[in-house]
Specification:
Layout (H helix, E strand, L loop, with lengths): L1 H9 L1 E10 L5 E3 L6 E11 L2 E8 L4 E6 L3 E10 L3 H4 L4 H7 L7 E10 L3 H8 L5 E4 L3 E10 L1 H10 L3 E5 L1 H28 L1
Antiparallel strand pairs: 1-2, 1-3, 1-6, 3-4, 4-5, 7-9, 7-10, 8-9
Length: 196
């Protein structure tokens, strides 16, 4: 955290190794142990973890990294990049559209919901979200978010009172997400039947 704060204050890039957990409960370095080089711009807290929000000049996009998975962090002599990307950056909006701080492809998604879910939508996306009545029992909301498995899990957790109505590509991805989950249980059921 100190390195990140110092790099932001001094307008410098940082490099670090990034790790992920293995089934042996060990942290294993990603990218073949290569260093990540990014321009740090902000720190945020989500689901009991700190995240670095940074500009990746090689990819030309804003990315985020869990701070506790960053190792061997060093401040570089090179100045930060990505100032234009962060000029109008809204950290709160970024956190709202990123489910569980898992990145995905940004898209404007239309959700059709039962009226009793208005509070769920407002709590998740803020008071500025437009809720458009659809008959007596439903409304539609168009929201900008990062489409990811975590977003699909959130929709699934809400249940049958919410459905994705657009764009078609997101609907298709969600349907495939559900099919893959169901397929996991169909295989287990067939194995269980054979064993009995």
């Amino acid at each position: 955290m100190d390195y990140i704060h110092t790099a932001i204050y001094e307008n410098k890039e940082i490099k670090f190794h990034y790790a992920e957990w293995t089934v042996k409960k060990e942290l294993k370095l990603k990218k073949g142990s290569a260093f990540y080089v990014v321009s740090p711009w902000a720190l945020t807290w989500d689901d009991e973890n700190y995240y670095l929000v940074a500009y990746d000049a090689a990819a030309g996009i804003i990315k985020h990294y869990r701070v506790d998975k960053m190792q061997n962090t060093e401040i570089l002599e090179t100045d930060r990049k990505g100032e234009n990307s962060f000029r109008n950056f809204d950290l709160a909006a970024f956190a709202k559209k990123t489910f569980g701080m898992y990145g995905g492809v940004d898209a404007e998604v239309t959700l059709e919901c039962r009226n009793e879910l208005a509070g769920v939508i407002i709590d998740r996306f803020g008071h500025d979200v437009w809720l458009i009545p659809q008959g007596e029992d439903h409304f539609k909301a168009r929201v900008l978010l990062s489409v990811s498995p975590q977003f699909f899990g959130w929709v699934t957790g809400i249940g049958s009172g919410m459905r994705i109505t657009g764009p078609e590509s997101v609907k298709a991805d969600y349907a495939q997400y559900l099919k893959n989950i169901i397929a996991n249980y169909e295989v287990e059921d067939m194995v269980a039947c054979r064993e009995t």
